[in-house]
Specification:
The chain is α/β, with parallel strands linked by helices and 345 residues long. The protein contains eleven helices and twelve strands. It has helices spanning 24-37, 51-57, 63-72, 91-98, 154-170, 188-203, 214-223, 235-249, 286-299, 302-317, 334-344, and strands at 12-18, 41-47, 74-77, 103-109, 122-128, 138-142, 145-148, 175-180, 208-213, 230-233, 256-260, 265-269.
Length: 345
């Protein structure tokens, strides 16, 4: 079973770098600078994916990119564009399914210096990443009637439950809460529920566990997010709730993400490609940098990861608006924020 941290500490590391679309090259470049300033040597294997890859390689996800990630096992990825209501299948969905990155991990925490209506939020969302409605099996039954199939398997349900409980135990978290809709989807969400119960009873009775219908769970999240710790969800629900939780702490620009399997992992900022500000050096690189910190922890470089975290926390706590980007109340840009972090390091 996979764990979030593979402890591969060493003098040099190799990672595939997918800069992505829009602001991707800017925020990924900032992340590379910060990692280098922290003293970690990474050999970056640059590969293409996304809308720009269609123009340069004829495919939104070139085979060469997948092969390099298979080979090197770790990737750091920027945002990629997914057309709405047509066009190509999401690059993220393709990568997760092709590489069997079955666990989406998203830590969400309150950050000093970023004003929100909530304080003390400290959540981790664990989301099944390979099936459910995102299996992408759709067809038109008759004109005007479309059917989407939700695929749920015992294998996928058990392994994501094992991942969540193992993560909670290893990280000293107090509780796992499963959100579900088994009152309506009695077979699919029911299987998800029964598998989690079985895993908990068999091997993780020491970890507190509760279940909650997702309607109520969302209401409780916005009433008092501090009552939750680790959230366990199937794919579609997890996608929605993870963004909801990001909103509790300031939005998608201030949370990292990881997609983890038994043999490989991709770390990525979860925000969009923001084509409206691409090339203007206005984008906030924080989510990309935080995802880079998760990658360093995965490599076993926890000391460097902690230094970067302390550096960006100090910059965010600063009263100087010029070192923060506009989306988090500052007047600066990508380079101002990055330079301030590098200076702290």
């Amino acid at each position: 079973m996979a764990t979030p941290f593979s402890q591969q500490k060493g003098a040099r590391h190799t990672a595939v770098l997918v800069k992505g679309d829009g602001i991707g090259p800017e925020v990924m470049g900032a992340t590379q600078r910060v990692i280098a300033a922290a003293g970690v040597d990474v050999d970056w294997i640059e590969c293409a994916a996304g809308a720009d890859a269609v123009r340069t390689h004829g495919s939104v996800l070139p085979d060469a990119t997948v092969l390099e990630i298979r080979k090197h096992r770790v990737a750091l990825k920027g945002p990629t564009t997914t057309p709405i209501g047509g066009g190509w299948k999401s690059v993220n969905v393709q990568l997760r399914q092709q590489l069997d990155l079955y666990a989406a991990l998203r830590p969400v925490r309150s950050i000093d210096g970023i004003a929100t209506r909530y304080h003390g939020v400290e959540l981790v969302i664990v989301r099944e990443n390979t099936e459910g409605l995102y299996s992408g099996i759709e067809h038109e039954v008759v004109p005007g009637v479309v059917e989407s199939l939700k695929i749920t398997t015992e294998k996928a349900c058990r392994r994501i439950a094992e991942f969540a409980f193992h993560y909670a135990r290893e990280r000293g978290r107090r509780k796992v809460t499963l959100f579900h809709k088994a009152n309506i989807m009695k077979l699919s969400d029911g299987l998800f529920l029964h598998c989690a119960r079985a895993v908990h009873e068999a091997a993780y009775a020491d970890v507190e566990y509760e279940e909650m219908i997702i309607d109520n769970g969302c209401m409780q999240l916005v009433r008092d997010p501090s009552r939750f710790d680790v959230l366990l969800l199937e794919n579609f629900n997890g996608d929605i709730v993870s963004d909801l939780c990001a909103g509790l702490v300031g939005g998608l620009g201030v949370v990292p993400g990881a997609n983890i399997g038994d043999e490989r992992a991709i770390f990525e900022s979860v925000h969009g490609s923001a084509p409206d500000i691409a090339g203007k050096r206005l984008a906030n690189p924080l989510a990309a940098i935080m995802s880079g910190v998760m990658m360093l922890n995965y490599f076993g470089e926890s000391a460097a990861a902690d230094r970067i975290k302390a550096a960006y926390n100090a910059v965010l706590a600063s009263s100087d608006p010029k070192v923060r980007t506009r989306d988090i109340g500052g007047t600066g840009g990508t380079d101002d924020f990055t330079n301030a972090i590098v200076a702290k390091l």
